[in-house]
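Example 3.2
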Amino acid sequence: MRIQVLGPVCVWRDGTRLDLGSPQRRAILALLAVSRGQQLPFSGLADALWGERPPASASNVIQTHIKHLRRLLEPGRPPRAPSAVLPRLGDGYALRVPYGVIDLLRFRALVAAAETARRDGGQERAAALLADALGLWQQPPLADLPFLAANLMVVALAGERRGVVAQYGEAMIAAGKSPSVLPVLEEAAAAQPLDEGAQARLIRAYEAVGRRDQAVAVYRRSRRLLVDELGVDPGPELSEAYVSVLRRRTRPPTPGHGHVPDQDATTGPVPVSVAGALPAQLPADVPDFSGRDTELSALDRLLAGAEGSLTAVAVSVVSGTAGVGKTALAVHWAHRTRHRFPDGQLYVNLRGYDPDHPIPPGDALTRFLSVLGVPGDLIPLDVDDRASRYRTEIADRRMLVVLDNALSEEQVRPLLPGSPSCTVVVTSRDNLAGLVALHGARRIGLGPLPLPDAVALLRSLIGARVETEPGPAAALAEQCVRLPLALRVAAELAVARPSLRLADLVTELADQ
């Protein structure tokens, strides 16, 4: 006789498949087989078949199914003789058959033999035994009884198989047979995307066969899922598998660049930026920029003072309310002085006050390192390590870093260079007092435009109507609280309606 539970529930006797009857009858046999010869109480069978509300006739139904199963499994048993295969034990039943009859027990015997082989150093023998064990699985356990899928014993069986797949993958990798085990590991990783062990084994198998780009892709996908679904970073096993890929990945230094690559014990040879590909990330300059001579001069003076410094990084914080023109000032000044930064300009909008979440400093560092020429698979995992690598990349270079729309000092600090050859301009609605106190930043407070500058901005945007209606133009500037963003919106209203007098526009806006 042969009993299968690692797939659809089946029984063969003398090579002939037996008709087990109804799903309930097959379920009783399967649960008894999974119980490994131990007694399964009546309550356990009733719960599996009907849940929390078994019918009043549950006892009779189960006894009837047991009677039919005994006839199938023991056709030669004399009437009224006790059953040796399905005996009654206390308040339940047990299935007593030779050890090799049930595929689940043969599976476990092979797994135990593989563990013995592994302890004796026979990785190939262990891998072969585990392959035989997994070969017994036709489908998920009790595949033809979906109403038992959530049963604890059935769930445990699925977990048991995953554990053996993990052992098989480890044994095959250790035996140098990663190409053969890749399909199994890919299937396991796809089935359990949040199982860090399954992802780590796939990464190590890919790395072993030289498919490092796919190994890195698996790590990145897993990390993103862990963060999005569970709110956690990768654990030690997954991180170590990724770091192992980085250690073995060597890249020759780019010829023609004077920067000698650092040798890092964790990531191996570190590439440098590609010669000639200097970062130039500044957004386009603001058209018709008007006023701010005092603030521009202050930024010029800070830059001049920084050029004589041997130790300090020049950091300027441009602060002010929304719409006051902080970004416009920083970008305009950056374009005006870009020739003073021959090694490039870095820019990131940190989105500190956007409805969506602000950009974490780790993500901003990744962007900077990418534009500086560091391949994605060599960007460190830890944010502090990422910041160190960033400071190394721009050390002794004359670069400008613009950190726009910062929310807090914590968002900015990891992005500050360590070399006095670099200059940083930060914009924020907050005054970022911590940067001033701890990093010597110079604060430039930005208020509304002086009235003459506000009118001048309207003149450059609207044209001659501002000259012909100076009073309404001044009133319009005041209505906009002399904020550059509001002034530009009002100017667009005026330009879109060329026949409208500014006085009428002022009246409309006052009414609104």
